[in-house]
Each structure stands twice: as C-alpha cells, then as structure tokens.
Amino acid sequence: MLRKMFLLVVLVFFTLLSIPAGAKDAEKADFIDNRLSLEDQIKMENVMKNLAKEDRENVLFIDLDGSILANRLELIEEFKKRNSDLLGKDGKLIRWFTTQTDTPEKEISSATTGEISMDDADAPAVITSAPSWGWNHPANELPNIKSGPYRRISSTTGFSCLTAQIYLPDKYSGEAFVNTDNAKGDTLHIYSGANTSAGKVDAGLLLNYTSETWGMFINPNPDDNPNVGWAQPKDLGNFKMGTTVDFKYYTPCDNQFALAVSGVDKYGNPSNHTAVVNVPESYEFRSDGVGMQVKRVTSIAQTFDHQDLTTGSFLRNAKWANVKIGTSLGSVVLMTNNTTSSADSGGFKGENVLVNYTDPANEKVWIKCGVIPYSDYGDVNGDCQVSPVDSTYVLLYESGQTPLEDWQKLLGDVNGDSEITSADATLIMQYWAGTIDVFPVQTSSKQGMGDPKQTTVFGSIVAGQVTGKAGDLVQLPITGENISGLAGGMFKLVYDPSIAIPQSVEFGPLLEGFLTAANLDHCAEGNIILVFASGTGISGTGELARITFELVAEGETDLALTEVRVNGVEGYDTTISGENGKIITEPK
Q1: For position 304, what pLDDT does the model report?
Q2: Cis peptide before 469, with omega less than 30 degrees from 0?
Q3: Quick one: signal sequence residues (predicted)?
Q4: What is the DSSP string of 261-306?
Q5: Does 2.60.40.680 match the CATH number of domain 458-586?
Q6: Do 164 and 383 meet the contact criterion of CB atoms below 8 Å apart?
Q7: Buried/exposed 447-470: b ≥16 CB within 10 Å, e otherwise
C-alpha cells in the first residue's frame, strides 16, 4: 500500500512539471516558462535578474553564438517565425558574433541603420537658436556613409544608458512614406545604441511599412562596411503607429546591452518587450559607462553603396522627448549641452534633415530622401502633393477651426512672413494652377511674385444694418465696395450675443470660385470669423457674404468689423477699411 502511494505521489509530481504554466503565473513579471530546460531556466534567471522589474515581462535573450532564449516559449517561436531567413539549420542566428560561416536560405540585406561609428571628440555641443516654427537644418554636417540620410545626437563618453519617450509617426497622418517602387531598400528607423573605440551596436525601432507597425530591431555591428552581412533581428516587439512609447537602452552588466520598449500594439493592447544581447569582451561595453557613448538616431536606411537621396521616402514628426542618460536606469538625468558631443551630433545630408530643436533632451526630426523643406512647401496636409485641399487647411487654421502641427505651419508659410493666412492659401492655389512655379519663401529675397510693400488691394468691406423683432431671423449683408485686386482675406465680426446670434453664413456672388470658411464655434461668445482665398484677383462691388441672425432680445448691437486683413495675387497681407454695421431689435 505504501509503495502504491509513493508511486502515485511521484507520478503527480512529474505530471505537474510537464503542465505548461497557467495564465495567472504567465502574467507575473518574473515569469520563466517551465517548459524550458532546467539549464535554460537558470540562464534566463541570470539574464533577468539584472533587468529593471518592469522590463521582465517578455524577455528575449541572444547569446554570443546566436542562440535564442526567452522567458516564454511563445517568444522563441515567434522570433524564429519572423526571422527565419536569419537562422541556420541549428536554429541559431547566422553571421552573429561567433557564427560567421553559416549561410542563410536567402541573402541578408546589406542596408545599414544609417550612421557610423563616432569620433572620440567630447567637446560639449553648441546649439544654434531656432528659426520660425522651430525648424532648421542641422548646423553640423555628418559624414556620408553611402546608406541614406540620418540625424544623430551623441553623448560625451562615460554613459551606458539612455531613456526617452518616442513618438512613432503614422503613415496615414502624412508622417511617414516609403517609396517601395525603388530598389534602394528604404527603411525608416528611430533608435539608440552605444559606441566604444572597440565596438558599437544599434538597437531601436523600424517601420514595417506594409504591416503598419513599428518593430524592435537589433544591429550587432553597424560596421563602416556593412557588406559583411551581419544578421539584424527584427520584430522583437511591435507597436502602433501614431503612439508614444517608453524607450530604454541600457547595459545591465558588462559585455551586454538591453533594449526595452513599452507601449501599445497595433490593436491597442499593452505591449512590453525586452531584448537582451551578449556582446564580446572586445567591445569593452561596461555598465559603468567608462569609454562609452550613447546616441539617438533617426534615419532612412538604404542598401549600402546604393544610396539615392531622391527616392522621396520621408519620416516626419519623429519626436524624442525627455531624453535622459546615465550609467544605470536609476542614475539617468536629462541630456544637456555639457553631456552632448558636438563633433558627433548633426545630420547627413543637411538639406535632407530638418530638426525642431527645443534642447538636448527634446527634439522633433523630419528626414527625407529629397531636399526639404523646399520641395514640400504648400503640402500642408502631407499627402505629397500641392492642391486646393492644402489651401483649405490654411483657411480652416486661420479661422480657428483646425489646428496645425509645427511642420504643417512650416509648409503652409509659403510667403515666408511667419504667419499662416489667406495670403498663403492664395499662393498655394496659384502654384496648383501653374501660374507660379516657385513660392516666395523659396527665393533668397522671399519676394517671389512681388514686394509686400507693393501689394495693391483697394476698396472697403461694409457690414449692413437690419431691423426686426425678437424671434425673427434676419439676413445681414457684408459687401465689398469698389474692390480692386482682392485675392483673399479674413475678418472677424463682433456683436452682442444677448441681442442677436448668427445661425448660418452664405458666401456671396463676389466670392464665386473662392475657397471659403466660416467659424461659428464662438457665436455665443459674440464673434464669428470669415476667411476666403483664390488664385486670381477680383474687382467690383458686390456681396461678400450674407449672415443669418436670430434676434433674441429687444435692443441694438453694433456689428464691428475687426482684424480685417486682405491680400492680392502677390501673396502678402495688407489692410483695407471696414465699415461697421448694426442690428436693431424692436419691441413686438
């Protein structure tokens, strides 16, 4: 009897060992799958003990020989599925640190992540002041490495850790475009990594353009000559376009680095992934940061030695925020000029990179295989063409109905006066119609179609006078008197909302063919805004608009025309006189 009970206990014990972990256990941050061999479980425990607690949920580990482990068996299976072309017959990464002889089933791309090793210069960076809207080309031209344009900010030596919040541009918002019809291998990257005099790595995120996610990737040796064909594992974790992720690159222990990213996946579910990679001792990677620099890079990688800066691929609005560096996650502080290496920071090629630089810890990057911003002026909605839609965006912005991002303001300011007005909408219409082939802002004098001082619009705008009884709907005409050369404009009409409230706006025959917009969002506060623009000028006397008011109480209110601004075909703002009107509500 005792023997039978002993056998039963042993059987139950080994049965429990063979059962996969339950869902509850699998949710634990320190979870290690018991389906792994005991040796692999111990190895993962040693890897994970050096990670931050919040980085232990989904951990993938790559050893020097290219072997793959993870704390969850599903992560290993997913990795092998997504990176099958990088694996040898033994299931290990080929062309890794100690496996440079195996051959994959298909050729590894020779595209690099778009930057090279850095000099040892540690001079603190000197940052120039920002222009209108905060965008400028980098002052420091970095080397041409024949694999695409890039923007890089590097630390001085002594750092092994970088953290940041990164905004991942969305291709459906006009923030990312990849020309898939060319053979240059264009790939959009946002990443970090570390460099020493003996070795370097890249680790971060790249845009999977067709599957529409940003995926984690590792480049173990971004060599000056990438034709060595190192494997570059990707899709170690995937994140939704148009969202912000928490990003960490750090050195948990000597001869190792970790990439941890936290955000949401394509479907809005929480996504937290960590990749840990062992590197050779010869790299001299130390957790105390001695001899190390960390970096942040935004790039369009192309196949090495097949660089083409005219493909049109671009990445807009890539935002690095609260960038901190240190020697451990607990020691990080915001980057400053004193911890930024000027010699190793800048961009290539200057005309292909724009930066909205706030300080060493915060910036937005716009990078393109093409000259920017000049070829993109007028493309306010970011659809890679200039059309009346862009003029509409300008009018909606001027009327206060639609906000614009900084890059949209930059592209919309086509006359170069640091304002976004109907004058810009007029010039965009002219460019679309082919009556001009260059915007004023693109010329050295910023006076493409004419001198702002010689802008000629004559006449006046007159608000009418109407009378009615409380509860009536009345129509108030706004007319243009003896107008000459009018191609666009705006005005605000201010009144007492306790007497009358506007219900609708109908633009008049004098503005036939114009793009128009009216903002009634603040009518209860006593004002409405009307804007209009065309690519050609008009002359004459006639109705600009007809506004329907509801009379709500006995009394009278002035109708004050304020902020009257007009423009001619030259594309610059000027003023003409405005004559106020009145509404009188009589007793019933």
Answers
A1: 80
A2: no
A3: 1-23
A4: EEEE-TTS-EEEEEEEEE--GGG---TT-TT-EEEEEEEEE-BTT-
A5: yes
A6: no
A7: bbbeebeebebebbbbbbebebeb
Q: Is the peptide bond before 497 cis (omega within 30 degrees of 0)?
A: no
Among 130, 127, 174, which Cα is nearest to 418's? Answer: 130
Q: Which amino acid is at 245?
A: V
User: Rounded to an integer, what distance in angstroms lies between the CA atom of residue 365 and that of residue 319?
Assistant: 6
- Per residue, the 3-state secondary structure of 117-156, as one string, reads CCCCCCCECCCCCCCHHHEECCCCECCCCCCCCEEEEEEC
Q: What fold does the segment set 42-368 form as a domain?
A: Jelly Rolls (2.60.120)
Question: Scanning the structure block, which residue is given the tokens 């020493």?
Answer: 196
Which pLDDT band holds residue 238 (cuts at 50, 70, 90)? Answer: very high
For 119, the token pair is 């000099």
Residue 232 has pLDDT above 80, yes or no: yes
pLDDT in tens, 35-81: 999 999 999 999 999 999 999 999 999 999 999 999 999 999 999 99
Helix (H, G, I), strand (E, B) or coil at 43: helix
List the structure tokens of 442: 């693109």
> Cα(200)–Cα(294) distance, rounded to whole angstroms?
10
CATH code at 379-441: 1.10.1330.10
Strands 465-469 and 581-586, bridge-based pairing: parallel
pTM: 0.70
Place of tokens 């006009």: 174
So where are the chain's domains? Answer: 42-368, 379-441, 458-586
Q: Which residue has the tokens 């992934």?
A: 273
Query: What is the dihedral angle through the alpha carbons of 115, 119, 123, 124, rounded to the nearest 10 degrees?
Result: 20
Q: What is the pLDDT of residue 118?
A: 39
